[in-house]
């Protein structure tokens, strides 16, 4: 089953279940190396989602500009409606992508605060 948070811009991304599985495997050992590995994995996922979201924003901006030009030229209603519908769909996908990015960012912050800092402090002392 592919959830909406796993598909951005029509292409599947790394599934939440897979990331949780890898994280659970790494947690079994609970060492600094596994924590850094988890952070790296989540940061890679974050980068992937940010790139995808940025592509959608660029496309959205282009379509909005195209819509503006068509309005100024008095284009046919069905052409305007088609682009308006497309931009609304893009806007929804961008909103979902933002939520995914925020969720991943929170996960990274939690890992940093709850695992990395204590393990780093333990290593230093």
Automatic annotation (TrEMBL):
DUF632 domain boundaries: 23-125
Any Pfam family: DUF632
Protein name, as recorded: DUF632 domain-containing protein
High-level lineage: Eukaryota, Viridiplantae, Streptophyta, Embryophyta, Tracheophyta
């Amino acid at each position: 089953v592919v959830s909406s948070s796993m598909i951005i811009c029509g292409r599947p991304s790394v599934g939440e279940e897979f990331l949780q599985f890898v994280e659970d495997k790494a947690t079994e050992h609970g060492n600094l190396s596994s924590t850094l590995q988890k952070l790296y994995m989540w940061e890679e996922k974050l980068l992937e989602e940010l790139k995808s979201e940025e592509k959608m924003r660029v496309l959205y901006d282009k379509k909005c500009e195209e819509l503006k030009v068509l309005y100024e030229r008095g284009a046919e209603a069905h052409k305007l409606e088609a682009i308006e519908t497309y931009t609304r769909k893009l806007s929804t996908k961008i909103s979902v992508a933002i939520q995914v990015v925020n969720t991943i960012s929170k996960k990274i912050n939690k890992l940093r605060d709850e695992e990395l800092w204590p393990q780093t402090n333990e290593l230093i002392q």
